[in-house]
Amino acid sequence: MAPRRRASPGVAVACGWILTVVLGFCVSFNVDVKNSMTFSGPVEDMFGYTVQQYANEEGKWVLIGSPLVGQPKNRTGDVYKCPVGRGEPLPCIKLDLPVNTSIPNVTEVKENMTFGSTLVTNPNGGFLACGPLYAYRCGHLHYTTGICSNVSATFQVMNSIAPVQECSTQLDIVIVLDGSNSIYPWQSVTAFLNDLLERMDIGPKQTQVCDSAF
């Protein structure tokens, strides 16, 4: 039988030193399962899609994004604030942020904008909440740009950010009506004009129409 080899003392010391160094970079933590808190909301609203811990002068909160709030029609989404450390469990409060999340001078499309899909706290106070499917309308076209709102420490929308552009004028139309009875039947002409104008988005910065008769 071959003699058994013994490990060199130097190798054992080296292994022990490496193990000590590696353990020095390990960070442990405990999860409290006895005093856990549960926040629940409608599954169809995607309640809990985003979650952030938050604190202000009023106390500690859990911010919860719910991107499909507003079933079954608008589904704009929203963010809830849920109180923590107040003794008895208290209900979460919907902040109604989409109401004040707005860009002036554009025709907004907030339906299905999934507000609350992105939720980021600000180290200096407040937080950022976004709706990636926010859109604005130019004529019959929808441009999906997304929108974000800076929310203050007291849960008020300070300003909204979205890369929208001003809608350019589409057409300038002049309609000349001949009243000499050379066009017949006249009812067909008026029906055609009514149908044509109903299909246009008429306004100062959209299609402009001039009607002239002789």
* Major β-sheet strand ordering: 1-2-3-4
**Oligomer designation:** single chain
Q: Ranges with pLDDT <50 over ≥5 residues?
A: none
Mean pLDDT: 81
User: What fraction, in percent, of the residue positions are helical?
Assistant: 10-25%
Q: For the terminal residues, how far apart are their CA atoms?
A: 123 Å
SSE string, helices as H and strands as E = HEEEEHEEEEEEEEHE
Number of domains: 2
Count helical runs: 3
- Total DSSP E strands: 13
Task: Specify the structural class.
Answer: alpha+beta
Task: Give an account of the 3D structure.
With 214 residues, this protein is α+β, with helices and mostly antiparallel strands. It has 2 domains: 44-161, no CATH class; 172-213, no CATH class. 15% of the residues lie in helices and 31% in strands. It has helices spanning 9-24, 97-100, 186-198; strands at 50-56, 59-66, 78-84, 93-94, 107-109, 118-121, 127-131, 135-138, 141-144, 147-151, 157-161, 172-177, 208-213. The protein has a 4-stranded antiparallel beta sheet with strand order 1-2-3-4, with no helix packed on it. The chain has a 4-stranded antiparallel beta sheet with strand order 6-7-10-11, with no helix packed on it. The protein has a 3-stranded antiparallel beta sheet with strand order 5-8-9, with no helix packed on it. The longest helix is centred in the N-terminal third of the chain and has 16 residues, at 9-24. It is elongated. The mean pLDDT is 81. GO terms for molecular function: integrin binding. One of its GO terms (biological process) is cell-cell adhesion.
